[in-house]
Design goal:
With 274 residues, the protein is mainly alpha-helical. The chain has twelve helices and no strands. The longest helix has 42 residues. It is elongated. The N terminus and C terminus are likely disordered.
């Protein structure tokens, strides 16, 4: 049985070799030669490469145009990025110069020349703070002139928040808007603004102060005080115009009579005795 099995295996092996020889004769080259000769493999690779190039040839112009477009886009992006970096640097320099001078025109110039940059938004914040400070001071010196400056502050803060800022800029703009509305007597809007600062920026520098203001505006006593203050008429004192040439200056107002001194009755009694 074992001998018969070996003969059967030999017959199969011989049949496979005969099949390989037939394949070699059909294609004109041996499989061993294909495996051993690197030049043949290189020629096959070259033929496939040529075939691939021929398939791309009808689309070559389109591919070249696409490559050129990508190159131009890359170069353009590099130029834009470089110019943007230079613009940001110049905008911050202008902003710092404005802080040094403290002139309103300097911040207006930053906003005009560098729109959409962080320096422009911070310049807008500085202008809003200036308007708020001026309007608040006018409430206690020339009340009729205060509302326009306070409304200007509201508009500036609102324009900053309209750009959806983040971080410290958003915190300060939200707080400033609440304070401007409080100064205008818009207590409900102011309270919501303070509460938003405390809720959205819990670790910010203004969170605790904002929470305190929100709590105070919720008290009835605070609202009564604001109602009382709104009814007050506060105007700057009128100055006496200087006297014109040839006219005497206005006499000073008469002083109110003072109570007599303690020694005056004694002097009068002495006069009677004389």
């Amino acid at each position: 049985m074992a001998t018969r099995g070996r003969h059967s295996g030999n017959r199969h092996h011989q049949h496979d070799r005969e099949h390989d020889h037939d394949h070699e004769r059909e294609h004109g080259i041996g499989l061993g030669e294909l495996q051993a000769d690197p030049e043949i493999r290189d020629n096959d690779l070259a033929e496939k490469t040529v075939e691939f190039i021929d398939s791309l040839r009808p689309h070559l112009n389109t591919l070249l145009l696409a490559a050129a477009g990508l190159l131009l886009a890359a170069v353009g992006w590099g130029l834009v990025s470089s110019q943007s970096a230079a613009t940001r640097s110049q905008s911050w320099d202008a902003y710092l110069a404005g802080l040094s001078s403290g002139e309103v025109q300097s911040f207006d110039e930053v906003i005009r020349r560098y729109p959409g940059t962080p320096a422009a938004e911070w310049s807008r914040l500085v202008l809003a703070d200036m308007a708020l400070t001026e309007g608040t001071e006018l409430l206690f010196s020339d009340k009729d002139r205060a509302p326009p400056r306070l409304q200007a502050a509201v508009d500036l803060y609102s324009s900053i928040l309209g750009t959806r800022p983040s971080g410290m800029l958003a915190e300060r703009a939200t707080f400033g808007l609440a304070k401007a509305r409080e100064s205008l007597g818009q207590l409900d809007e102011a309270r919501r603004g303070y509460a938003a600062v405390a809720a959205e920026f819990p670790t910010g520098a203004l969170a605790q102060l904002a929470a305190t203001h929100a709590a105070e505006l919720g008290r009835e006593s605070s609202r009564q005080w604001y109602d009382w203050f709104a009814a007050q008429k506060i105007a700057p004192p009128q100055q006496t115009p200087p006297a014109s040439a040839g006219q005497p200056a206005a006499e000073p107002a008469a002083q109110p009579a003072t109570e007599p001194q303690a020694d005056e009755p004694q002097e009068k009694s002495q006069d009677k005795q004389e």
